[in-house]
């Protein structure tokens, strides 16, 4: 339940700390006193849209904090799934801060969370019934959510969604294969041409680089041969001179043995020179270039370059593409086999999905029948004696939510047709329908706190008394807070708060005051007649006596 609200610098509220209790509480006050501001602050705290204009004039930020106790299991599970620590005493503190730059910060038990997460967890904690939420009720999506949630059908619906996802994925994969096969057939002739070219090329990794190196060498062959010949001619002359020098050195040695060292060195140089000349001669003789061979190498390199350009820029990629084409051209039968296998899987998944959806439909119909009867009964208690409420379930195509088209229908008066709520209900009737639905769904709905924003809109007299009694009944199962202008409803509350405005230091502020018994009499008298006459005070006192 919602135990405590703390608001700072929000619109007309400068500082407010409001302690709430279980059971039934009401908020009353003059029109424009700030009741709607209090309600919008709760919406802000629970992840609602933010407007920086909500910050009190002259302040840099505003904040709203909420304290919940005895949170339901759905909240505990949510906290565990999202790794958010929960307090040992079962309390949950929500805080949201809005900055003057329009940005906001959100916290759960002191841990930073997103506004989306606040909104999700808020749906487990608080149910705000207002004119805006009535409009949301008019959507089939919301009606389906209410039916399944109240009937404990979400687990089964999640199984349907999971199976639908499997079924849809199989269909997608089959369609992709069919598309690939069709494209392969259209491209078959071209693919066969490509494969023939790649296979006839007899590709080898590195061959292109080797050819480029050889051709580079051959293009310089004439220059190399010319210079090698000149080098050998010079070396031959040098060898002849060296031979003469060696002969003269040998003659001198005969007369001077100390020349042995020079003689040995000259002999060594002579041997080395002879070896170099012999090696260069062999290398020169190897330069035997065949113009036809060079032409063949150029043609081969041109082919390899075309293949590289067409298939990914390298011989490696061309070989990879060749292997892919082999698989594509050989895989026609494999495509058929895969598609046939997927068709069988699709049929099996569809059967399973249909069985689960049928099971969900059966449970929905049973629960819808019970809720329709309950809601119709509450409508009659609220003065709509000839009203009939019906949850219609019609078959539609399979979807993630099953195969049911859900719609809430109403016959407001005898002899009329069953129509959707937006066509059958007036503004005043819609508030009573909302209360009737809340009552009918209350046994299975575990949201601990319900807030009614002017559930009394458009009603009065005995209908107002019946609304008050139903809201009181609802508060025996959960915490109920009602913003009201009706004395009948205010008098049934366990606790009554009054929202007022006053001026302080030239500024208008809204504040909330918990009323004692005497103050309640005066406030209820105001609600009865607009003033505090002796008669209205007496009537107010009698209303409270019945309650207290």
Mean pLDDT over the residues: 85
What ranges have pLDDT less than 50 throughout 5 or more consecutive residues? none
C-alpha-based Rg, rounded: 47 Å
Q: How is the main sheet built?
A: 6 strands, antiparallel
- Portion in strands: 15-25%
What's the shape? elongated
Task: Note down, in words, how this protein is organized.
The chain has 548 residues and is an alpha/beta fold. The chain has helices spanning 35-45, 73-81, 115-125, 131-137, 140-150, 154-186, 188-200, 207-219, 221-255, 260-286, 291-310, 315-330, 332-381, 421-424, 427-441, 461-475, 487-491, 517-529, 534-547; strands at residues 2-10, 13-19, 24-28, 61-68, 92-99, 104-108, 111-113, 126-129, 388-399, 402-411, 419-420, 449-453, 479-483, 495-504, 507-514. It contains 19 helices and 15 strands. A hairpin with a 2-residue loop joins strand 6 and strand 7 (111-113). A 6-stranded antiparallel β-sheet has the order 2-1-4-5-6-7, covered by helices on one side. The chain has a 6-stranded mixed β-sheet with strand order 8-12-13-3-14-15, sandwiched between helices.
């Amino acid at each position: 339940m919602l135990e405590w609200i703390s608001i700072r610098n929000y619109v007309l509220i400068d500082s407010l700390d409001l302690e709430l209790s279980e059971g039934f509480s009401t908020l009353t006050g003059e029109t424009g006193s700030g009741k709607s501001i209090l309600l919008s602050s709760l919406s802000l705290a629970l992840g609602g849209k933010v407007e920086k204009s909500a910050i009190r004039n002259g302040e840099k930020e505003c904040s709203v904090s909420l304290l919940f106790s005895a949170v339901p299991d759905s909240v505990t599970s949510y906290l565990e799934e999202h790794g958010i620590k929960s307090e040992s005493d079962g309390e949950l503190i929500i805080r949201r801060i809005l900055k003057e730059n329009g940005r906001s910060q959100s916290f759960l038990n002191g841990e930073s969370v997103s506004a989306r997460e606040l909104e999700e967890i808020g749906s487990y904690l608080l149910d705000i019934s207002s004119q805006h939420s009535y409009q949301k009720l008019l959507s089939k999506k919301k009606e389906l959510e209410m039916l399944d949630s109240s009937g404990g059908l979400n687990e089964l619906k999640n199984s349907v969604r999971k199976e639908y996802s499997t079924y849809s994925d199989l269909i997608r994969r089959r369609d992709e294969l069919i598309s690939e096969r069709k494209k392969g057939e259209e491209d078959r002739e071209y693919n066969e041409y490509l494969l023939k070219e790649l296979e006839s090329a007899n590709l080898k990794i590195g061959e292109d680089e080797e050819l480029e190196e050889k051709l580079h060498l051959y293009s310089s062959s004439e220059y190399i041969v010319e210079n090698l010949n000149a080098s050998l001619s010079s070396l031959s002359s040098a060898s002849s001179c060296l031979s003469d020098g060696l002969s003269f050195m040998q003659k001198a040695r005969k007369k001077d043995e100390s020349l042995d060292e020079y003689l040995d060195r000259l002999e060594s140089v002579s041997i080395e020179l002879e070896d170099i000349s012999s090696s260069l001669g062999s290398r020169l003789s190897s330069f035997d270039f065949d113009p036809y061979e060079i032409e063949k190498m150029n043609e081969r390199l041109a082919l390899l370059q075309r293949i590289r350009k067409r298939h990914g820029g390298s011989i490696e990629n061309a070989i990879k593409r060749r292997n892919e084409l082999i698989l594509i051209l050989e895989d026609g039968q494999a495509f058929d086999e895969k598609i046939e296998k997927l068709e069988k899987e699709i049929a099996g998944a569809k059967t399973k999905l249909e069985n689960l959806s049928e099971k969900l439909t059966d449970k929905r119909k049973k629960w819808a029948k019970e809720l329709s009867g309950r809601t119709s009964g509450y409508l009659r208690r609220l003065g709509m004696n000839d009203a009939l409420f019906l949850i219609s379930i019609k078959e539609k195509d399979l979807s993630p939510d099953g195969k049911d088209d859900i719609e809430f229908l109403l016959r407001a008066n005898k002899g009329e047709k069953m129509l959707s709520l937006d066509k059958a209900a007036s503004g005043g009737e819609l508030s009573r329908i909302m209360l009737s639905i809340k009552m009918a769904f209350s046994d299975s709905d575990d949201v601990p706190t319900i807030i009614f924003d002017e559930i009394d809109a458009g009603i009065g007299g005995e209908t107002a008394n019946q609304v008050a009694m139903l809201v009181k009944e609802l508060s025996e199962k959960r915490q109920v807070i009602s913003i009201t202008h009706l004395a009948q409803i205010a008098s049934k509350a366990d606790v009554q708060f009054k929202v007022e405005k006053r001026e302080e230091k030239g500024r208008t502020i809204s504040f909330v005051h918990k009323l004692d018994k005497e103050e309640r009499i005066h406030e209820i008298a105001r609600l009865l007649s607009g003033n505090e006459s002796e008669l209205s005070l007496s009537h107010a006192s009698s209303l409270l006596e019945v309650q207290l």
